[in-house]
Specification:
Strand content: 25-35%
Number of strands: 26
Structural class: alpha+beta
Shape: elongated
Largest sheet: 8 strands, mixed
Number of helices: 21
Helix content: 25-40%
Oligomer: single chain
Radius of gyration: 48 Å
């Protein structure tokens, strides 16, 4: 049965081959990007190079030559990016020299940190002691503390020194790991094409035997159960909706994609992601494309077959068919259909079979790319900010209500401030002291002989509720009638004031509480009684002072405390509600469609790569340019500063960007970002302080969750076709305009990859394998047993079969292993056993071993082909089928 080519579905696939170099790189300029990253990431302080220069070796030689020291001094402090040397300037510094320099810097910083910690986090001493053992003093060298310039660490405190030391150690370890490994690899670009290839009878579903003249009613029920046990299938419904429409999730292509996602989720060591989730990592190989061809094809075919087989099984599990039968005797009742055996003597059998959809699956290989590996820390750092906010809100919500203030802490002096701090309105305290003047003037008593009576006076004292007497002062002026009998003035409970005498007037001011605790702490209604005799006139006043009782003050303190407590509690619950709403709003931001999630992750990977390649000092938005945006008065938060044609930015304002303009353009053009792969490594490759938080991040999308939890990522950058040598010059020399020597081992593999790709996959679009070339052609293969000689003129080649070969299309002659494989075009196809090519650069001898002739076609070269089967909705019926043919 012919295949339905119009219904074909292709899924992108990649096979990655790591390369292990057995030949050391050239001793000349190399690793420019890594060396530049090491120097800049150390954040050299002013004077550190001179400090390292003063460290002595075993024979007193300086650790750096003068030219290298002068170059490194340009990185000290915080120089402008435009003033920094280019990466090409540091390419010639030996890697061992930079490693020793980084170790010396770490040693000096460790010594300064130890001294700062000893002094109690005071600024570091200019004469810090040597580093402790294990802090990385270069072999054979000792850090001389007296040699450290005074201004290197004098103003730095322990926390700053700790960060600075960590920067040096991390930069050094990263540099050593990167220069030791071979960053070059190979990435085979592949497609898995799945095409419906007809319908075939499947397994036996049910058998209905019928006796002669028997009737039976058959009810057929069929249903489909959708299982989303791993992740939702979004490839077709999101990315390709407008191009290919929506497919059922029982389709083989969609189920295969889901199966790959399932496998990636349960990959403990690393998660493979990027624009293509179908990825096979095969064995490490030496330099040579041919060495990896056979092994990578085998590994890729095996991986693809396993994936489609598992996907086919999942589709089968989702589709169920049942057939139930009901036999009726004496009466005829039809449910769905009625079956009857017309024979009077012979029995018959009705067999029901499932109809299976046959899929032709082909694995095409359509390109080879050189790759360059880098490692970037915390790929999801920016995307974690949302979870950091949620974690802080959760921690705040989990805090119980606490009110530490006690009623006894409230006083007249602080209650207003406490009320303001707690947002409460509290009652004023009772008045502190209430003075009252009580008493009166006594006169008209007469003279001695006229009136010698005793005179008693009562002064009522009504103490206000909640108050008590704390002070009574007698203020009196007493006259007299004569000297004999003597005058008398007595306050009951106190007595007569001293110095009353008999002659003239007498004035008294007496603190009765101090004298005899007179009425002290008395409450309620009281009376003061005093006695006068032989007094012609008198003025007696009692100044009584009231103060709140201890119970009254306690009641006020409790009332004020209760008001503050209630206000604080209400504010706490209001804040809790606000935090809960903010947490809900942040949680809603997690419900983003899968396509957006993948784009955000790819953007973060690209940003991390650019920072690694261009250095930590590279600014996506230079400060000077940002100032221009601010001065324009626009809305920086929402990015609507410049909405007109004249944005008011002169070329001078973009100086920093101009410096990197060519480099940024080169990086974006030289890398096939659509084919980038990245391996996510576990949380413990991150800073240990963040382990608990990072490993507990949860996201409804499992791929995003793995991205957020990653401590670091290994990024495989596929170099675009034609940029291989320029890219190697960029990363090794720091200048893509320069040229590595042809003897460099990286150049050897680059040239081999270029030649292999140009020869075996000609005319295939590198970025979009689904696009059709100008002259579409299917793949055609044949062999030749003849001898053909090199010639610039057209050459006729005798082949086994010329069917499928198209005039004007590229064709590959011979194998890679032969050493004479070449690419040419077909000029003519004269008959079924000959093709004419435009010319040959090499001789080809097929008399001993036939050489292949391959026309790759627009989809690439077939690596493997197999069939898969999935159930359909159809059911086939057979009457008394041959039992020997039933599977």
């Amino acid at each position: 049965m012919p295949t339905a080519e119009s219904a074909s579905r292709a899924v992108a696939k990649r096979t990655y081959v790591a390369v292990q170099s057995s030949t050391p790189a050239s001793q000349g300029p190399a690793n420019a990007v890594q060396k530049m990253a090491l120097i800049r990431n150390m954040s050299l302080q002013q004077g550190e190079v001179d400090a390292v220069m003063l460290t002595a070796g075993p024979e007193g030689e300086p650790p750096l030559d003068q030219a290298t020291a002068d170059l490194l001094r340009q990185f000290e402090g915080q120089p402008l990016v435009a003033q920094l040397p280019k990466a090409s300037a540091v390419a010639g510094i030996p890697a061992q020299t930079l490693t020793s320099f980084a170790t010396s810097v770490a040693s000096l910083r460790g010594a300064a940190l130890a001294e700062a910690s000893r002094q109690g986090d005071e600024p570091a001493s200019p004469s810090a002691p040597p580093a402790a053992p294990g802090q990385g003093v270069p072999s054979g060298r000792t850090a001389s503390p007296a040699a450290v310039p005074v201004n290197v660490y004098a103003a730095m405190r322990a926390p700053d020194l700790q960060v600075s030391l960590n920067s040096a150690l991390v930069a050094q370890s990263a540099f050593e790991a990167q220069v030791a490994a071979t960053p070059i690899g190979m990435l085979h670009l592949e497609n898995v094409e799945m095409t419906p290839a007809g319908i075939e009878r499947g397994e036996l579903l049910a058998t209905i035997p019928l006796a002669p003249k028997e009737q039976t009613s058959v009810v057929q029920k069929e249903w489909s159960v959708t299982s989303r046990e791993f992740t939702s299938i979004v490839t077709d419904s999101l990315e390709n909706y407008s191009e290919t429409g929506v497919t059922e999730n029982t389709e083989l292509a969609a189920s295969s994609s889901s199966q790959v996602q399932h496998n990636n989720q349960f990959n403990v060591s690393a998660t493979v992601s990027g624009s293509c989730p179908w990825m096979t990592a095969t064995v490490t190989t030496s330099y040579g494309v041919s060495d990896s061809k056979t092994q990578s094809e085998t590994a890729s075919s095996k991986h693809a077959k396993e994936t489609t087989q598992k996907a086919s099984s999942r589709v089968k599990q989702e589709h169920k068919t049942t057939i139930s039968t009901t036999t009726v005797t004496g009466t005829s009742e039809t449910t769905t259909r009625t079956l009857e055996n017309p024979s009077d003597t012979d029995p018959m059998r009705i067999d029901y079979f499932s109809l299976m959809r046959k899929w032709r699956v082909r694995l095409y290989r359509y390109g080879l790319r050189m790759t360059y590996d880098i490692a970037i820390p915390e790929p999801g750092a920016t995307l974690r900010e949302l979870f950091a906010q949620m974690d802080e809100l959760n921690a705040s919500i989990a805090l119980p209500f606490s009110f530490q203030l006690q009623p006894s802490d409230i006083t007249r002096d602080n209650y207003l401030q406490l009320a303001a701090d707690n947002g409460a309105t509290v009652p004023a305290p009772p008045n502190d002291f209430i003075p009252a003047r009580l008493g009166g003037q006594v006169d008209g008593l007469g003279k001695l002989g006229d009136d010698e009576s005793w005179h008693f006076f009562e002064v009522p004292v009504d103490v206000p509720g909640g108050f008590e007497i704390v002070g009574v002062v007698l203020d009196a002026m007493i006259g007299n009638v004569g000297n004999n009998p003597p005058r008398a003035f007595t306050v009951f409970g106190y007595g007569s004031p001293p110095g009353l005498g008999n002659v003239g007037q007498a004035s008294f001011v007496v603190d009765l509480v101090a004298a005899c605790n007179f009425l002290q702490y008395a409450t309620g209604s009281q009376q003061i009684v005093y006695f006068l005799q032989n007094v012609d006139a008198a003025a007696v006043t009692f100044v009584v002072t009231y103060a709140p009782t201890a119970d009254a003050m306690a009641q006020w303190q409790f009332a004020a405390w209760q008001a503050m407590h209630d206000a604080k509690r209400d504010a706490y619950y209001a804040q809790q509600q606000q935090w809960a709403q903010e947490l809900q709003q942040l949680a809603e931001k997690l419900n983003v469609d899968t396509l957006t999630l993948r784009r955000e992750e790819n953007d973060e990977i690209m940003k991390g790569v650019l920072r690694w390649l261009l250095g930590t000092g590279f600014d996506f938005m230079p400060p000077d340019v940002e100032k221009v945006f601010k001065s324009a008065g626009g809305d920086l938060k929402y990015g609507v500063t410049f909405t007109g044609n004249d944005i008011g930015i002169t070329p001078a304002m973009w100086t920093t960007m101009y410096q990197y303009e060519e480099m940024v353009k080169f990086v974006n053009e030289a890398i096939e970002w659509e084919n980038v792969l990245y391996f996510l490594y576990s949380y413990f490759w991150d800073v240990p302080l963040s382990w608990d938080f990072v490993r507990q991040i949860e996201h409804p999308d499992s791929t995003r969750q793995a991205f957020l939890r990653a401590g670091s990522a290994r990024v495989v950058l596929p170099v675009r076709k034609g940029y291989e040598q320029a890219w190697l010059s960029f990363v090794e020399l720091g200048d893509f305009r320069s040229q590595l020597p042809q003897s460099h081992p990286y150049m050897t593999i680059a040239q081999e990859i270029q030649a292999y790709d140009n020869t075996n996959y000609p005319g295939i679009p590198p970025a979009n394998p689904g696009a059709m070339p100008v002259e579409p052609a299917a793949m055609a293969t044949t062999t030749s047993n003849s001898k053909v000689a090199a010639s610039p003129a057209p050459v006729s080649v005798e082949v086994d079969d010329s069917t499928g070969f198209v005039v004007g299309v590229y064709v590959t002659i011979d194998t890679v292993e032969s050493g004479v494989q070449e690419l040419t075009t077909i000029s003519d196809v004269p008959d079924a056993t000959h093709i004419v090519v435009s010319g040959l650069a090499n001789d080809h001898d097929g008399s001993k071993q036939a050489f292949p002739v391959v026309q790759p076609g627009d989809t690439g070269v077939i690596v493997a082909e197999w069939n898969e089967y999935t159930p359909s909705s159809g059911v086939d019926i057979a009457v008394t089928s041959n039992l020997a043919t039933i599977a």
